[in-house]
Records
---
Amino acid sequence: MNARWILALGSTLCLLPLASGQPPEKPAEQPAHAELRAVREALIDAFKKRDLDGILKHLHKNVVVTWQNGEVSRGHDGVKAYYDKTMVGDKSIVVDVKAAPEVTELSVLYGGENPHTAVAYGKLSDTYKLRDGMDFPMNSLWSATLVKEDGRWQIVDYHASTNVFESPVTKIAVQKSMLTAGLAGLGLGAIIGILLAVLLVRLRPNRA
């Protein structure tokens, strides 16, 4: 068997796994991803139950949170104060909120074989019902940075935002401003019309 036949046989053997339709084996997933999924599920469960203490348990004591309205909360006390102002009591802004967080892809891990930092991002698919009667989807995007301390993953930074140009809140505000401007224009037009009518009457020559 000459070298050419040996080369051809080797090439054929290399292609057999592809021809059999068996996909190549994926690299083993790092255990950190399963740990991070557990944190995510615990947070979602606590959010559905309106269990603020359950949420805070997964936030670092120095966490920084940037909310959709641009406000920034620092630490557990800051997050609790924002939650109480927004969600609790007869004067709260929000009556109800629903969300179904989705992760766009696996978290980006830092630290090699023993990762200590993770960055995740995705969509919130959130909807809000406000005290003033507004009910709308926000479709926010989110990102979070987590660190592992004493064997536990905790969120140190969380940021939520929405597309201001596509936001339902922005559209409603624009519609309201247009309506206000339109009513003001009608009012101004009526005043100008009355003034013109008075001037025309005064300028019209008297007839005997």
Note: The longest helix spans residues 168-203.
---
Amino acid sequence: MKLRGALNWPSEALFAALRIIEAVVVTKLAENFTPFAMNGIIEDSLPAMLPLQGKLCAEHRSWLSAEIAVYYAATRLHWHAKAVNKEAASRRATKNCRKKAKLC
């Protein structure tokens, strides 16, 4: 559904593809995460984009579906890294507070 040019609700095909990409990302994060995991996420996600490609124009379907998969995976990994860093900073702050409490 579009409203004034902005996408408010994704199509069922897009939502289903993003749900599969999310499952792939969660699986890769549960495994031993390496710097090359992004390649594996994209490779495992692209078959999920096939139903969406059927709804896109022939000229842009492969490019656009790959862009959607890469953008979603990169954004999801960004927020995961942000949460991990926030947790690490919290642990450091707690450790420093405990260290200061022992000195007093």
Note: Residues 2-76 form one domain.
